[in-house]
Amino acid sequence: MFRKPLLIALPVILVVVIYSSLFGRPYRYDVFDADYHWITRQIDEATEAISSDHPLDDLNFENISDPNWTTICLFNGYTDPQVHMAELGYHVTAFQRLSLDTKIGLYRVSTVDEHEAMIVIVGDDGRLRFIHLPNGYPLIVQHEENCFDNE
User: Fold this and answer.
1) Is 56 exposed, middle or buried (0-12, 13-18, 19+ CB in 10 A)?
2) Domain hosting residue 56, numbered range
3) In 10 A of CB 58, how many CB atoms?
4) Any domain includes 20
5) SS (H, E, C) 16-58
6) 54-84 tens-digit pLDDT
7) How far apart are alpha carbons 128 and 93 in whole angstroms?
8) What's the total number of domains in the chain?
9) 120 with 85: CB under 8 angstroms?
């Protein structure tokens, strides 16, 4: 009695699930990270300053939620931060690799796409924190990776 509607609905449900997994946005930006909104505000201010011919030369990292950070790396479009950080000798955990691979999903050229950015914060204990941002930092060109030490 209930089998026929279920058999009709099942293919529709499968099509919706397959379509959304292939064409939906399989990742989200790190909006729940403690520093996400503060960093995106800094990037927006830098973008406005550049467009008004008063560029900001540096981002201000004084307000990062972990005051004991040792290094911060900025990655713009078409970069793979986990690969770069591993090449620098930092340990990228299996969970971080899986998380980044899951976020990028299908049909992406690199972890950080064309107009995006990623910031990696290295704590004093060597732990890495990846923050994926929707907008790239305007003073860094695509394929660019820059790291700054806490002085």
Assistant:
1) middle
2) 27-149
3) 9
4) no
5) HHHHHHHHCCCCCCCCCCCCHHHHHHHHHHHHHHHHCCCCCCC
6) 444 556 777 788 888 999 898 888 888 988 9
7) 9
8) 1
9) yes
